[in-house]
Each structure stands twice: as C-alpha cells, then as structure tokens.
Amino acid sequence: MGNKINSNEISVIVQGPVSETETLKCLKSVRRHLPEAEIILSTWEGSDISSFDGLYDILVENKDPGNALLRENAGKKLYNNLNRQLLSTQEGLKKASRKYAMKLRSDMILADDRFLNSFDRFQKHSENYVLFKHKILTCSLFTRFYIYCSAIDKKILIPFHISDWWFFGLKEDIDKYFLETEPVKEPDFSTYFSFEENKNKPNPYGKVKIKFAPEQYFGYSCFSRNFKDIYMQDSADFNDELCEKARQCLVNNFVILEFKHSGIYLNKYPYSKNEIMTGDQYMDLYNFYRYESEYKKYCDNDYIITSDKQLFENEKLSYQYLKIYKHFYKSFDKSLPLHTRLEQMFFGIPASIIKYLILLAKSKF
Known about the structure:
This protein is α/β, with parallel strands linked by helices. Helix content is 33%, strand content 17%. The relative contact order is 0.12.
C-alpha cells in the first residue's frame, strides 16, 4: 500500500448540466474533502453558474451537442445524453493539469475521501489485456456483470458495461479511456434496434433500442481501439469468447468499489449509499464480492476474499431475499407516487417475505 495521495495532486472534472442545488452540493463536497484539488466545472454555454463562485478553479463552457430521444412512456421521455457526457468530460480533461484525475457527474457527492485508500489495492493482473499504467477506480452502480435479455428470456453476461458515474486514476489513464472516443451519430445510434435489419437481434436493453448503452459504448470503444481482437457489431454481441475477454479487460484495468469503500454517492438515488437496496439487481452487478472473486480468479490466486460469501451461496434464495430490500427501499422513495409506495409496503414486502420463507423452508429439506 503506497502513501495516500494529496489533494493538491488531483484535478476533478465536474461534468454535465448544473443544478443550483445538486451541483452546489457536489462542488462543496469536493472542496471540503479534496481542499487543494484543481476543480474544473465543464458544462454548457449559457448555464447559470452564479451560485458556484469560489467553488471551482476553471470553467469550461461547451456548446451543447444535444441529445436523442430513446423512449416515451406514459408521457415521460427518456433521452440519450451520451454525446453530452462525452464532450463535457473530454473538454474538462483537456484543462486538467494534475497527476491524477477524477471524472465526476455534476450531481454526485463525496462523503469523504476514502476512495483514495483503495487506489493501490488490487494491482496484480494477468498477462492479457492490461491497458492502463495503474488501475482506475469506479463504482459498482452500474457496472454490470449480468443483464436480463427479454428477447431470449434469460440472463446474459454483458461485456464492457462499466459504470460512468465517476472515475479516479492517473490522468494519463483517464485520458486514454475517454479522449479518443468518437461521438455517436444520432438519431441512428439511439434507434439502432428499430431498423429492419436489427429487429430480430437479441437486444439486451429491451424496449430501449440503443446500439450500446453509454457505459458499454465508452468501455467497448476504449478496449477495441487498443486491442485488435476485440470487436462488437452492437450490444447483441455477447458470445462467450467476447465476454471472457471483457472480464479480463475489466479486472486488469479497474477496481470496482461499493459506497462503503468509495464514500461517493448520487444524491437522487438513496440506494447509492447501500447498493444492496437495488434488490435482486445487486446480484447482477459487479458488486464488491464479485469483483474480489474475479480478481482472485484472474489476477491473484492467493487473494483472500473479504466480502461475506453467504449471500451468494444460494442464488435463488438470495434473489428473493434482495427483493425484500428493493420493495422496502421503494416504499420510502419519495420520488415515487404515494399509491406506488403503499403498494410496495402492503403488498410487495409481505409477498416477498412469504416467498422467501417458502424458499428457505424448501432449502432445509
């Protein structure tokens, strides 16, 4: 374990749209816990930044590249902001001058600087697919291991789906991950699986017809341009050989942390402080137990796993157990309508408990 990194060695790129409440909290938390860091606010021309005086060192005002409509449901529209995220990150990185760089969404919050304690952990690697000089830190939400693919009615391994909420690493490595990535061409990228020639492919994102999720696009773009044997036509490519390569790329180049190790969370998602509250989805993430397991498998056979293994020993039982957590979280989620919260409380939680107890009883016989 090396010496802890000083904040005066770090450039923090706070990227994305600004909010008088959320971005203010974000910038204050960075200034509080990384007091000497170079803070770069990379946002859009014409944004109101009057509330942020003294909370950043460099302002980058980008021309907004726009977004693309992904889906409309019950009057709510879902947009793809991939090009926005990419541009604001790239332009912020270009202004960064310190040895280390942190890429941070403009609505994320640092509870402390504990993520720095993990920077020198897990530094062994296998012989294949080592790209970065030093592994990059990122979060388990939403670095995916599995995803349910409705087109074939089963869970599949999902390659290169590396969370893009925050990254920390050597600036040269963060640059390598982002700077050569090309923007996507819209609207074709976001409506890819709507085209006749693609309709029958097993799209892992269901009703969303995007060619790659943004997280997957950034990950795949980086590794495919650096390793010539990595190729995906689209996200429907998830063959075993490719997924094996993706697993090695991830564990050899990243350290995946949950909140208890990073101290970084997304204020609008309370479960980002306790990933288990995502419910059964937790089992499908690169949660810390899974990352430790992959690290032991590929990088260090002598590594001793520190996570509690019990949750993962009986998969069916664990999925049902975690559904209780999910219903419990939703029953207290103030962003949901009252009737939905009441349904979770009076129907979702009791039903999940009953199913869990039935499975538990069966497992004992």
